[in-house]
């Protein structure tokens, strides 16, 4: 799966929840894209800003979707993108989630970490109908409700919000002590650390790590993760890793 650089046309850019947007881009390419991979996006007029990485939320019929949150200058400019505007994108980048080794599959997401897990769940349902899928979706507020509406109907969902506006009140890691199965997770590093502390070696697991990438293609070594195999680049050897190889005490 060789990455390509291309200017992509905006098909749709809409706010699906407060400060959370879904951007759909037309690729006109027959490119193999797998759940867990990401893209690097540049707004053509903003050469002073580094490209920004975004997990791929979905890829279907030549259209690529990303979920993003309004955070700073770049994402603010992204919210102004209109239909037929063009952005500069490098994709697909990074590795991807392995297939589950158990029939019971559990997804744990924090914030926009929902994006790669949504893509994975959709593909697993398409490929393997005998799997049982359960989502724990955590976020600060009611945006989790909008996220859950993208999931297939036969997916069990538990919503957790920090402010209690939707679902259970708290943080997602407070509700996963009794889980058993193949676990996939994406979100902030401290969330991933807390999850691993709870599951340890009791379950097979794959985590998608977040980082600020300077290059996004492995040249700068600015996003390394300490592991039993040495320093691995989140953008190149990752973003998906088994938590068992991560040297958590060094993060």
Written account of the structure:
With 251 residues, this protein is of the alpha/beta class. It has two domains: 4-93, Translation factors (Elongation Factor Tu (Ef-tu), domain 3); 104-210, Rossmann fold, CATH 3.40.50.80. It contains four helices and 15 strands. The chain has a seven-stranded mixed β-sheet with strand order 10-9-8-7-11-12-15. The chain has a six-stranded antiparallel barrel with strand order 1-2-5-4-3-6. It is globular and about 50 Å long.
TL;DR?
The protein is an alpha/beta fold and 251 residues long. It has four helices and 15 strands. The radius of gyration is 17 Å and the shape is globular.
Which tags fit this structure?
15 strands, Rossmann fold, Elongation Factor Tu (Ef-tu), domain 3, about 250 residues, 2 domains, 4 helices, alpha/beta, about 15% helix, 6-stranded antiparallel barrel
The largest sheet has its strands arranged as 10-9-8-7-11-12-15
Major sheet details: 7 strands, mixed
Q: Output the structural class.
A: alpha/beta
* % residues in beta strands: 35-45%
CATH class of the largest domain: Alpha Beta
Oligomer: single chain
Put simply, the count of helices is 4
Helix content bin:
10-25%
Mean pLDDT: 94
SSE succession: EEEEEHEEHEHEEEHEEEE
Number of domains: 2
Global shape: globular
CATH architecture of the largest domain: 3-Layer(aba) Sandwich
Unreliable sequence segments: none
How widely separated are the two ends?
30 Å
What Rg is obtained from the alpha carbons, in whole angstroms? 17 Å
Task: Give me the count of strands.
Answer: 15
The CATH topology of the largest domain turns out to be Rossmann fold
In the CATH hierarchy, what is the superfamily of the largest domain?
Answer: Nucleotide-binding domain of ferredoxin-NADP reductase (FNR) module
